[in-house]
Each structure stands twice: as structure tokens, then as C-alpha cells.
Design a protein that fits this description.
- This protein is of the alpha+beta class.
- The chain has 2 domains: 5-23 and 352-480, Orthogonal Bundle (Neutral Protease, domain 2); 55-87 and 151-346, Zincin-like.
- It has 9 helices and 22 strands.
- It has helices spanning 8-16, 275-278, 281-292, 329-346, 361-380, 384-402, 417-448, 456-467, 472-480; strands spanning 67-79, 84-95, 99-105, 111-117, 120-121, 125-127, 130-137, 142-151, 169-172, 178-181, 201-208, 214-217, 220-225, 228-237, 244-247, 250-255, 261-266, 300-304, 310-311, 317-319, 353-355, 452-454.
- The strands form 6 sheets. An 8-stranded mixed sheet has the order 5-4-8-2-1-11-14-13, with no helix packed on it. The protein has a 5-stranded mixed sheet with strand order 16-17-18-20-19, covered by helices on one side.
- It is globular.
- The structure holds zinc ion (ZN).
- Residues 1-2, 312, 342, 346, 365, 368 line the site of zinc ion.
């Protein structure tokens, strides 16, 4: 997610006056082949969606550590006049422990029209934002749950005090469009989901809309059939990194580094002024590839939505138009481009390699924020020394107000401390290692752990192993200290 607003202005004021790996402790995908079920679907074809789900320490009511979804097949249709979403979700899963029922997060806003469990009609009960389907699955065995539903989407409150805080989940616009920002949870406002970052899965999303409308989702675009738009994610995706937007969109295509297809979806007469910034996508991707290695996915893009935030949704960034507190177009463009760079950087840090639980959000935001500042500092000719001096002041105020970044409070989701404080921590490692070793470290982290979920322990073990130095105390101090470390 984009960094909270307060950080933009101080930078302006200043201008004026990251070999073999240690196995991660939790959440890493094993990569082991999934054995085939005796009959029925070929679950082995979704083996890349295999994860090691864990319970969340901050938001325990979301996610189910007993369920490992391998693949979501979503067939959706949207009727703008009646504001009705009609859906059929086909969920291929592995039991991560012995199950007597399958429980998924799902909004109570929908009427469940039918449920099957391994092809047989089953009961599906929705209560407390959970869909429960009775059915026995032994640990490591597979099952298929199909849920048909319809209704008008309803958002859920975001557990945060950020300035740009908005409700989470699928949002209906006045003119009948749709968009979503859904970190840390909110995917379950549009499909039954194991709504937790430790359970990544593959996706096929098909969305049917009326003539003249377009549907945009995370993943790589497949052939459009009539007014049905199709997207496929061949790399595992966490639920919070999926997106859906429906509107009267215009589309522009470009080519990124190594021929990566890049697509911008914008609203004519609304987002046109941002096109020059959006068109910097290939250049920003090239800048990131130089430092962090190949872009980890088959396609990239941005969909513009009526939000005040921005989100690193996988292969298709969901971008709003934030209030940067400026009326100057050039200044607005600069901040907007910084935010875009931040969301593109997340494709390496957060998307390809994600956090096992929300306690490690710093691992996403620290890297994306640091990349963003390196980019902006280079452009604005701010030295590393000037930047650190400013950043230490910000860090100190944030620790005082919000506490250290390594143990965030549940009610303060994605506040500024999990952005700037870990970015400054990465800067300390950068200073000690120098450019070559630091960017080799960053590249190896992102490239070697693609498709997995990681945590603090696995990060520290990796850094120490990769550098041959002991950064344990440095990292833990920067993550846990109530004041800015010396
Ligand atoms: Zn972010």
C-alpha cells in the first residue's frame, strides 16, 4: 500500500532549505509436488498454489490455518443497474490439518444460492463473516468446494487511523462501477476466501459486464469473449493482492523491459492528466530490474480507481488519486510517480515474496519505501546523508507516536512506522555493505523466495547467511526499539 500522506511534505521541505538458503521458519511453500487424487480433478496442476497457512496474531478472525487453497476459479457477473454481483467460486484446496468442515471468510451480504462439496450438494452456512461447508477431508487430501451466490457488495471497516483510511473491500460507485482496496482483509467481500497472506493460490477470474463496460482484475489478461473479461494468475497470489474494477474504462498498452506487456486502464475525462505519469511504467520497471533483478511476473499494469490510496495488487496495481496537499500539477505528478514506483517495487517485495502474517508488514513496506526514496533521491539530487538526517527525525516521531515497527498494534494497520522505520533499517545494512553487496542481497531475497511467504526469522537468517556477517542485533533493534537506534 502507498505510504501514508504525512511523509510527502518533509521531503519537499528538505529540498527547499538489498548461495544457499536457510529454510524459513514459517509459511514458506515447500515446492513439493502435490500427489494426485485417486479420481476427479487433477490437483497436481495447481501444485504451485500450495502454501503453509498459519493463524494471524493480529487478525485471528480472518484466515483458516487448516485450509490451503490451491486455486480459485471465479466466474462473476456484474449488473450496474441493480448493483448485483452474481458469482460462482470453484475452490480447489488441500487440507492442512484433518477437517470435518471447510470454513472460509465470506461476506454476509450475499445470498448463497448453492454449494457443492466434491460434486455433491452440500449445506453452506454464513455467519460472522464465515462460510462453513460440512465435509471431511483428511490432512493433505484434496477437496473441491463450489459456491454460487448473489448480492450487493458491502465493505468492512479498515483497522487503522491513517489519514487516507477507507472502508475495505469491493466498493460500488454512484454510477454503478466497482473497485476494491482490501489490505489486510476484504477479498471476502467479493468471493469466499481463505483471507490471509500465508495462503497464496492460483487464480482464474472471469467477469461479465454489460456492453460498454470493462472489467479489470489481477493476473494476466486472456482473450476477451463478448463482454466477458478473463484474467489468469499463474504465479501464487495472496487474497489481499487480488483486485477487481469495473467501469467505463479506456485502455492503453505499452511494452516493459524484456517485452513485458504493460496495460493502463483509465477513465476518460478523469485520469487523462495522469497518463504521462502512467507512461513512465516501463522506465520505472527498468529502474527496479537494474537493482532487484527481473520483474517477477508475466505482465504488469495499473487500473485507476476512485480511491485516495494506492495498492500493489499483483500484476495490476490499483491506483487512486491521493490528496498530496498540492495544486501544482508538476508537484502532484512527482508524488504520484513516487507512489507508482512504490507499488511497482512491491511486485518484488510483498507480492512475489510476501509476509507470513500481518505482524511482518514491515517486510513489505520497508523495501517498497526504501526503493521509493532511492528513486526520488536520485531524481531530486538528495544525498544519502541528507536523506538519513531527515528520515531519522521522522523515525523518531513515528516510534514515539506509534511504537516500533516490528510489533504493530491491530488497530493501527499500515501506519507510517511500518514504512519509514524499516526503510531506515535497510539503509543501515546498505551503508555497511555498499551498493554491490546490498543490491545482490536484495536481488537474491526477491528472486530466490518467489512465490513464498516469509517472516522476520527467515529474513534475518537469509541476511546473515548471504552476507557472512551477523545482522541479527541490528535488525531486531531497528524493529523493536521504542526510540531511533544510534
Ligand atoms: Zn506499500
Amino acid at each position: 500500500m502507498r505510504r501514508p500522506l504525512l511523509l510527502a511534505v518533509p521531503v519537499l521541505a528538505l529540498i527547499a532549505g538489498c548461495s544457499p538458503d536457510t529454510p524459513p521458519s514459517t509459511g514458506a511453500t515447500t515446492g513439493a509436488p502435490v500427489s494426485s487424487a485417486p479420481a476427479g480433478p487433477d490437483y497436481a496442476s495447481w501444485a504451485a498454489g500450495r502454501s503453509a497457512p498459519v493463524a494471524d496474531p493480529l487478525y485471528p478472525s480472518y484466515g483458516n490455518a487448516g485450509v490451503d487453497v490451491l486455486h480459485y476459479g471465479l466466474e462473476l457477473s456484474w449488473a450496474p443497474e441493480t448493483k448485483t454481483l452474481t458469482g460462482k467460486a470453484t475452490i480447489r484446496l488441500r487440507a492442512a490439518s484433518d477437517l470435518t468442515s471447510v470454513r472460509l471468510d465470506f461476506s454476509q451480504a450475499y445470498t448463497v444460492d448453492g454449494v457443492t462439496f466434491n460434486g455433491a450438494s452440500a449445506a453452506g452456512t454464513v455467519a460472522d463473516n464465515d462460510l462453513t461447508v460440512p465435509g471431511t477431508v483428511a490432512k493433505d487430501a484434496f477437496a473441491t468446494v463450489v459456491v454460487q451466490y448473489h448480492g450487493t457488495p458491502v465493505t468492512v471497516p479498515m483497522p487503522s487511523h491513517r489519514g487516507d483510511v477507507e472502508p475495505l473491500g469491493l466498493t460500488v460507485t454512484k454510477d454503478g462501477g466497482l473497485w476494491t482496496m482490501q489490505e489486510p482483509y476484504g477479498a471476502s467481500t467479493w468471493y469466499p476466501a481463505n483471507d490471509h497472506p500465508s495462503d497464496k493460490a492460483l487464480y482464474d477470474i472471469a467477469v461479465t459486464v454489460p456492453e460498454g463496460w470493462a472489467a479489470v482484475a489481477s493476473g494476466t489478461a486472456k482473450a476477451q469473449e463478448g463482454t466477458t473479461f478473463r484474467y489468469a494468475s499463474a504465479d501464487p497470489v495472496a487474497t489481499y493482492l487480488t483486485t477487481l474494477a469495473v467501469g467505463r474504462y479506456q485502455k492503453e498498452t505499452a511494452e516493459g523491459p524484456r517485452g513485458i506487456p504493460v496495460t493502463y486502464w483509465f477513465r476518460k475525462g478523469v485520469d487523462d492528466k495522469l497518463l504521462p505519469s502512467l507512461r513512465k511504467g516501463p522506465q520505472q520497471l527498468a529502474w527496479l530490474e537494474q537493482r532487484f533483478g527481473p520483474y517477477p511476473f508475466a505482465s504488469a499494469g495499473v487500473v485507476m480507481v476512485p480511491s485516495e490510496s494506492g495498492m500493489e495488487t499483483q500484476q495490476m496495481i490499483t491506483m487512486g488519486t491521493p490528496d498530496y496537499g498540492t495544486t501544482k500539477p508538476a508537484e502532484f505528478a512527482k508524488y504520484f510517480e513516487d507512489d507508482l514506483l512504490h507499488e511497482y517495487a512491491h511486485q518484488w517485495f510483498g507480492d512475489a515474496v510476501g509476509p507470513a502474517t500481518w505482524k511482518d508488514l514491515w517486510l513489505n513496506e520497508g523495501w517498497a519505501t526504501y526503493a521509493q526514496h532511492l528513486y526520488a533521491n536520485e531524481r531530486d539530487k538528495i544525498t544519502a546523508k541528507q536523506w538519513e538526517e531527515w528520515a531519522r527525525g521522522v523515525d523518531s516521531r513515528l516510534r514515539g507516536r506509534l511504537g516500533p515497527p516490528g510489533n504493530p498494534k491491530a488497530e493501527n494497520f499500515a501506519e507510517s512506522n511500518v514504512y519509514m522505520c524499516p526503510a531506515l533499517m535497510l539503509h543501515q545494512i546498505h551503508k555497511q555493505l555498499g551498493d554491490d553487496a546490498f543490491f545482490a542481497l536484495a536481488r537474491e531475497w526477491a528472486q530466490r523466495h518467489r512465490g513464498t511467504s516469509q517472516d522476520r526469522a527467515s529474513f534475518i537468517a537469509f541476511v546473515n547467511q548471504q552476507t557472512g556477517k551477523d545482522f541479527t542485533t541490528l535488525i531486531n533493534t531497528w524493529l523493536d526499539s521504542p526510540t531511533t537506534p544510534k
